Amino acid sequence: MKTVVLYNIISFIILVALIFVLRIVSKSNLRQNQQLVIKVIATILIVYVIAFVLFIDAIAFGIIGPVQD
What we know:
By secondary structure, this protein is mostly helical. The chain has one domain (1-60). It has two helices and no strands. The protein has helices at residues 2-27, 32-60.
């Protein structure tokens, strides 16, 4: 369970950093194509991190597990 808590804390830090990156990119002077690429990559990473946390939590709480005979 300590590992799951550690994963949740690290994932939360990553999510905050990615949201911070999205805010900085939208205010930057980059070209539109560069902004779009960075926003798309950051958004995909945000969705991936959220899905990863939900999957790990579901395993930890016993929602997902091995199929019983």
